[in-house]
Amino acid sequence: MRSPTAPPAMPWLLVLAVLAGFAVDLSAATDHIVGANHGWNPNINYSLWSGNQTFYVGDLISFRYQKGTHNVFEVNETGYDNCTMAGVAGNWTSGKDFIPLPEARRYYFICGNGFCLQGMKVAITVHPLQHNASSKGSGNTGAQGETSAAALTRRSFAWLGALAAAVAAFC
Q1: Alpha carbons 24 and 22: distance in angstroms, whole number
Q2: If 0-12 CB within 10 Å is exposed, 13-18 middle and 19+ buried, where does residue 119 land?
Q3: N or C: which end of the chain has fewer CB within 10 A?
Q4: Of 71, 156, 69, 57, which is closest to residue 121 (Cα–Cα)?
Q5: Which tens digit of pLDDT belongs to each residue from 33-91?
Q6: Which segments does the entry list as coiled coil (predicted)?
């Protein structure tokens, strides 16, 4: 009579390698905390803050504020310019809002509790990720392009490492 054998480890290791790759890819995103240590409050120059940030597809923008006093609305350019609810695309009220930036475009955020007129608004531009920073016409120049290329290289090595670990376990 034959004794029962343990299930093969190969499929589980492959799943583990794929999950590790996803975790590494997600960890490459940057969480931009609006206003840094000042948070989302009136009378802060958010244009200056956003001008010192570089946003890429997949990053997050986070708003930290007193729940019940402030909130966050994503609006269109008209809503941003006039501090109105024109073109509302989303609203958040938790006081610790993490908002994904899934596409390359201009985003506009305001406080909808009347504080927009006191400066609680921020506009950002999200840039596409450069998949091949060394190719001609990629538009990647300067330190930002090098940073993006370095992040992609780290992701590639992490994927290769996870795959190598999975293959080594089978040999």
Answers
A1: 5
A2: middle
A3: N
A4: 71
A5: 999 999 999 999 999 999 999 999 999 999 999 999 999 999 999 999 999 999 999 99
A6: none
Report the C-alpha gap between 31 and 8 in whole angstroms. 39
CA atoms within 13 A on the CB side of 61: 27
Nearest alpha-carbon partner for 90 in 68, 63, 57: 63
> What number of residues does the chain have?
171
Q: Using CA atoms, how far apart are residues 12 and 87, in angstroms rounded to an integer?
A: 47
How would you classify the pairing of strands 121-127 and 55-56? Answer: parallel
One-letter amino acid of 23: A
Name, in order, each residue with C-beta under 8 angstroms of 9's C-beta and a sequence gap of 6 or more. Answer: 169
